[in-house]
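Entry for GBH complex. Fields follow.
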Amino acid sequence: MFPRDFAWGAATSAYQIEGGWQTDGKGPSIWDTFCHEKGRVFGNQNGDVACNSYELWEKDLECIQQLGLTHYRLSLSWARLLPDGTTRNVNQRGVQYYNRVIDDLLACNVSPMVSLYHFDLPQAIQDLGGWKSPGVATLFDNYAKFCFQTFGDRVKLWITINEPQVCAKLGHEVGIHAPGLKEKGTTAYLVGHNMLRAHAMAWHSYNSTYRITQNGAVSLALNSDWLEPLDPGRSEDVTSAERDLIFTLGWFAWPVFVTGDYPELMRSSIETQSKMMGYSGELRLPRFSIDDPPILGTADFFALNYYTSRKVKSGGCSEQILSMKRDLAAEEVLDPSWPICGVSWLAVVPNGLRKLLKYIKDVFNNPTIYITENGFAQVGPLQIEDVERCKFYKSTILEVAKAIEEDEVNVRGYFAWSLMDNFEWADGFSARFGLFHVDFSDPELRRTIYQSGREYAKIISKYKSV
Ligand code: GBH
């Protein structure tokens, strides 16, 4: 059912697992700052120590081997490598750490997929305006080139930026992620724009300088729920669901995979709402400049993070200010038949993944797809025998198989989120996404495999070529 060379992976990110927040010369990131402010994160928790993967990497490697993964997705901490964000100061101990991780993985026959950015901007760059400032794209490009140069002889799968939609919206409009801004209506679009510019610059750098010798592939990881009309017989709901997919996934995927520009429907919706309030849409959703490298074609594969689904109905926004929510003019609801796992946002809808994969195949020109994240949270009392999560992984992977077999979607890999329990952003350590449990009350931070970890290992050993 799965191609012989299918990538069977698990994923993590630097801030969520590494700890060592100021060890060996690491600079602070916006998540260090954010968590150290009271009232931002569940229980005022933070990632100062997290799984202490900075010191316990060998333990993580044991977990990876126990699962029999073919691939491991990790992210690099920009501020660990470049403490002030610039290549003028390279932290060699950070370089050594990631060299060791990459070398150990390869020695165990595990291919690394490396994200350059997973929410943790160096604080020094935030102090200059962060993702709102156009100059951040050049700084990111310099950082990317440094990483390609330093690690690209061994890393063949790169993600530039993880989930720009989440960073833009939750970090700059809703404010529940770092840097915690609640600037409605314009900032998120500007941030998304600069992230796209940064991504495209880095892809072009790889393409023109490193590809010929390193021969890897570079993309950006896009998150989207599967969004379908609440009432498929009601045309307003149908167009609302389409619009929602365009605002969530199309925002970034259209420029990269389809036209080199934002979706027309996104522009016109923003224009309509802006005009109603006496503004022009141009003021809010930027135009791509001919002075920047082109955006179209800057992904060698499609990287998708999928977790859940929503039903969508048409609906306005009662607040009389411009906002992304107002531009969307749609309302998302849960289907009561969908079970909710742990965290309130995560309705379990494995079948939504298959539908989203088919949508991506049709709309984005049949790209090669890696599912770079998918997972299930546990909250409350610890259950090592996590029967529900076992079922979840089995049925989700079955949906991926159907997408490959029946819908002929070109899926090349699947990464479970996450290798182990870790710092779940605003939810702190209260939501556990791991295939391994981490005992955060134990000074040794012992890792213990969940039943779902065993189950996933079984699935992998059944399909992977040896
Ligand atoms: C991923 O995002 C992240 O890449 C990863 O780091 C994280 O650990 C993982 O999810 C699990 O959460 O709080 O109601 O506003 C997934 C996409 C989008 C899911 C934002 C949670 C927040 C909903 N995320 N969403 S809410």
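NOTE: DSSP finds 15 helices and 13 strands in the chain.
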